[in-house]
DNA sequence: CTAGGTTCACCTCAGATCGAGTAAGACTCA
DNA sequence: TGAGTCTTACTCGATCTGAGGTGAACCTAG
């Protein structure tokens, strides 16, 4: 960072060529299961293995690179209404020497929450991409198993104290749909009554539209009231996961 | 990430030379005030301005680069017992084009919590480094104002649900010292009685040494019991900041 | 040596919140 | 029509919270 010490101590061998890539952990919920977007690698290294979508950063902000990669891999383009509601945040940066066998690659990972998106359509990069339930997304290329694990933990934690869960559902949703998001991400059932009470008691989490669903649930039940996301950025009080003693130590 | 598409779409103009640096937001508490380690820049750009300590990543893990930079800037070396107790975690990566006027620089920022360290001694890089109360650390070089702000928010949040506060004090400490850490980082006084009750009620946060301080507080009071950090990695229940409505929206 | 102020370690109390359970009513499916 | 499902609302006891109080230990000023 300091030009003088940079020039004084500069040795090309100390600073081998570094490439910066952006990888995306894109999560969505399909059929009540938490799924991640994966691509099939066509070239070495790790040919045939699955990996997180990603690519080299160009002369653009890192966030923009993540959106671009997500757009290219899903075949969806910003401006068509699909990618607008995607929540995107930086996850972590991975830069161990040797994590890419070709060269020094520093990878900035992003975490994305998407409402249920259509299966990526054939054509361009997107043909190689598909949604996979997270528990089946193992044995990924590079250090992507670790990246995915970090992303899942971040997602589970985010749901506790931010309204990010609304990014997984449409603009209008029922409390039951929101509960299914929490159940899918946390991997455990939630008490419907308590969840209902807590969501409505958090100021700014959801606001009523005054409407209800056209019909009851698929397997019966009354018409549910519809809500949209409120203006809160943090949940007070938070919706805490059922305590798991093994997470604590 | 994919070699085929990499080679097919490769254009040197798309991928200008990228440098990867590591910057550190090192926090400590001196005289009850939260302080950050800054360096005085000697060269252009931003000559004479203050900046966060940092430098170019070498062929090493990013974490190791952060430790190395911190060691070089403070004059303390790992293995002498000073840097061992420093808590270090990755904060965020900053990569906007133009954030460094010389070239494309992607900077991985780290956050460090240190117990009260001696003032960096003269010699080598460390002569330019000193601790500054965070509220006086303004008008920094590059985008370091933003990095510092992100680091402070992360630190305040970390104290809520992890035992990181113990990284700011010695191996043995009193509940009162721990409370002063929270007060300094959060910038508000805490109810001593409630804080005492909550800290002791969180399993694994602190464990008693059975000892007490040799004498009472500086301005009187009984001898305080001594504690050391427990084995918890997360605090359940968490020590939440007093709710601030303006943080929520 | 004493008085006064400070600090630690408990304790109490009222209100909020939590998990768990119950129940009424609306609705779908067979 | 009957069985089962789902939303919404309520209750209850246990727990947690913030606010405040008490007493003993301790330092310092006078």
From TrEMBL, chains A, B:
Highest taxon, organism lineage: Bacteria
UniProt keyword annotation of Signal present: no
Keywords: Hydrolase
Pfam families tied to this protein: NUDIX (PF00293), WHD_NrtR (PF21906)
Signal peptide limits: none
Domain Nudix hydrolase: 19-154
GO MF terms, alphabetically ordered: hydrolase activity
Protein name: 8-oxo-dGTP diphosphatase
Organism listed in the record: Actinoplanes xinjiangensis
């Amino acid at each position: 960072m300091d030009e003088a010490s940079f020039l004084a101590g500069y040795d090309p061998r100390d600073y081998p060529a570094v490439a910066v890539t952006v990888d995306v952990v894109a999560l969505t919920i399909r059929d009540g299961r938490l799924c991640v977007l994966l691509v099939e690698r066509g070239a070495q290294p790790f040919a045939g293995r699955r990996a997180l979508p990603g690519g080299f950063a160009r002369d653009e902000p890192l966030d923009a690179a993540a959106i671009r990669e997500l757009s290219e891999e899903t075949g969806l383009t910003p401006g068509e209404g699909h990618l607008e509601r995607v929540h995107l945040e930086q996850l972590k940066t991975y830069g161990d020497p040797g994590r890419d066998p070709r060269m020094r690659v520093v990878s900035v990972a992003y975490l994305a929450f998407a409402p249920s998106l259509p299966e990526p359509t054939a054509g361009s990069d997107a043909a190689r991409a598909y949604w996979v339930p997270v528990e089946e997304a193992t044995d990924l290329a590079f250090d992507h198993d670790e990246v995915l694990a970090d992303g899942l933990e971040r997602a589970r934690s985010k749901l506790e104290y931010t309204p990010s869960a609304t990014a997984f559902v449409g603009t209008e949703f029922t409390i039951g749909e929101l509960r299914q998001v929490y159940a899918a991400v946390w991997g455990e059932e939630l008490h419907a009554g308590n969840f209902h009470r807590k969501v409505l008691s958090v100021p700014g989490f959801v606001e009523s539209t005054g409407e209800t669903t056209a019909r009851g649930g698929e397997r019966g039940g009354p018409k549910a009231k519809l809500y949209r996301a409120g203006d809160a950025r943090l949940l007070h009080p938070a919706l805490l996961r059922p305590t798991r003693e093994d997470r604590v130590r």
